[in-house]
Design goal:
This protein is mainly α and 607 residues long. The chain is built from 35 helices and no strands.
Length: 607
Amino acid sequence: MDVMGDKATLFETGRFVQPSSREDTETPDETGEIADEAAEELRQRLAAEAGDVEAMSVLGAMLLRRGDLDGAEPHLRAATAAGDRAAANNLGVLLHQRGYADEAAGWWRIAAVAGSAAAAHALGRHHRERGDEPAAEYWLRQSAEQGHTLGAYALADLLEHRADAGAERWMRVAAERGHREAAYRLARALDRRAAGENDADNGVHGTAEAEQWYRQAAARGHRRAALHLGTILERRGELKEAGRWYLTSAKDGEARAACALGFLLRDAGDTENAAVWWLRAAQDGDGNAANALGALHAERGETQTAERWYRAAMDAGDVNGAYNLGLLCAEQGRTPQAEQWYRRAAYAGHREAANALAILLLQGGDETGAEPWFSKAAEAGSVDAAFNLGILHAGRGEDEAALGWYERAAAAGHTEAALQVGMARLRAGDEQEAERHLRCAAGGGSAEAAYRLATVLDARRPPEPAHELGEPVHRRSECEEWYERAASQGHRRAQVRVGMLAAARGDVVEAARWYREAVEAGSRNGAFNLGLLLAREGSEPEAAVWWQRAADAGHGRAALRLALVYARRGELAEGQRWADRAATLGPESVAERAVRLRDALRQELSA
């Protein structure tokens, strides 16, 4: 049974502070301690037999601590009869251990009335176990106010159970006196308060005061405090110290700490040791660690082992196990099984599983079945599901509903959704809102958004100021930076535009480089502009090669340029063929010129 306090407070004497733990083999120092203890017991026994009440009390406490209840009881009863309050308290402990709770409470009451804080604590716990909370609070408060650490903690626990505002005060008192569980619970309370103030409970908020109490509890061997302290340090980037606390907690049997240590090692590139700790945590029932092991084996192509660990995670109550099984089956092309596992996870409230299930149904042509799962996932906070709903509504022509979902996803940081909102705002003429969303999307890595933002900024850019001598002065503008960012991400229209800007400032080499990149990406405008650049530099034959490439891809002006080249060379039939091609491709202004050229070439041929 749990002793009602540590030895020093329980026996109310400084002689019995924290008994030393012994291994099966005794060292010479331990043998000496045993001899000293035996000598002390003999001395107390002789004094007790001589009628010394304090010796009776101390001897009884020594025997009680050793577990010799039969030997301790007569000495404690004799000392209690002589009015020793410590003996009365310890007699209560002895009787409680024997199963005589009511008789024990009687002796605790006697000792508590006589001023024993330890007895008041024991009596308070006795009343609480029997559901008499008013009596429990009275005696625990008596104990706490006398400076009894365990009494302060027990009182705080009782008040916290009743949601009494005074609980934190007494929890703090107990923590300040070194009670590790009190320090841990105080830290948790501070964390919850900080989380509430920020409208989100992220488990460990990590305020400075909470960290201080986690640290105190962890230093005293509290494994969950060590886990939370490690989490705080990891979030702050202090990985080395975080790892030390995770290791301490994990060695004490905290499965979550072993799992966290595994992730820390994996991020450092040590997957082998990460797997060791995940295995330890998974064997202790940690579903997150089992999922991590499953993912590790899946990456190695060991799908059967991965599936076994995902099932273990699911058996441990981690719904991610079912979701991961769905992903594994989907990758293997086992669509019916994937749907089964996605459904299982989705019904359990897994939002990404609901989104994945909806995508699976949509790919199978079941739009009616997919939409409710997209909605369920989106309402549960899945950003991808909100975006997918936007796509679904846009496909039906329901632009207003689509925009609503795009805006919801964009507000949560979805890059493509922000792009869609920006483009919709551009179409509506709301340039300010369009720019705001395009900046978000471009900052998130969208090349299309960077290009669209650049075009918006380019349209409002003032004319370049002239130099005093009439030469233009080039200043690098923000729109050029966005064009270049989009171009560097492979956006071919941006590459063409960057090439044009380079050509405008006379940087032929840079312009040609960007045009070539655009051509490689499939841009016919890039091929046409590269031809223009080469023609200006006097390389018309090479220019014709690029114009032909552009014309073959459907570029009308490139076809017209080719018609003119062949006409100048005197190859009238070939010129007429390209003029016909240009007239067909357009646009209208090009088609008109191409028709005139074609007719002129036809007349020349007829003549």
